[in-house]
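[audit] Reproducing an earlier prediction to check determinism. Same input, same settings, fresh worker. If the tokens differ from the archived copy the diff job will pick it up downstream; this log only records the rerun itself.
[audit] input (251 residues):
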Amino acid sequence: MDISELFWNASLEELKCGYIEEKNHYICLLCGKYFEKGIVYPEDGVMYESGRYVRVHIEKTHHSVFEYLIHLDKKLTGLTDHQKGLLQLFYQGKSDKEIQTEMGIGSASTIRNHRFVLKEKERQAKTFLAMMELLKEKDKYAPAFLEVPKTARMVDDRYNVTQEEKEAILTKYFPDGIKGPLKTFSRKEKDKLVVLREIAQRFELDRSYDEKEVNQILKTAYDDYATLRRYLIDYGFLDRKTDGSQYWLRK
């Protein structure tokens, strides 16, 4: 199970913590890093057991779970940029007057109204979540959809792909198996997304690659490695430095 699946399958409490606990380790839901139980981790001269260190990791690497979540694509949060800005200031502990001054909008009462609207959104979200949980118990015909990557730069109909469709697409374009070469590179958006997502699995997390290394990996999938490299970046699977000297798998 990849990090996006772990993230979307996590409970609300696990999302708030930013990690999940399994039998032998903890996993950061924000980047997929593992922390083995029974191992002591040093940090700034202090030794931490794994359960405590995963929280230190989140604070040092991601700043906070809130900061990570607030920067997800708006299609994943359901928040406008304006609402995100307000929530960030609320999270910082700013008063209504301070927020009104900083954002230059309305009055302190306007900020209170925004708080009310966000509270309504919370109630609606809770109600909808409860209905969807109850629906799972009854809707035996619901298809299993492909999880949307947390790194997706734009969430749209391209991600409307079931697990069955995914398997059919991979079989079609990778006749020798998913580790083999592509038969062809489709321009169909859904097919392209599934194929690129699979090819991205050939890169390791927490590792940087130079352009030559990236090209060598992509050549194992398709002769036109430059096209694959461009689309992997455009679709948010890979990232790179502005000068192209380093590439890495986005978390």
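[audit] rerun output stored. Observation attached for the diff report: DSSP finds twelve helices and eight strands in the chain.
[audit] end
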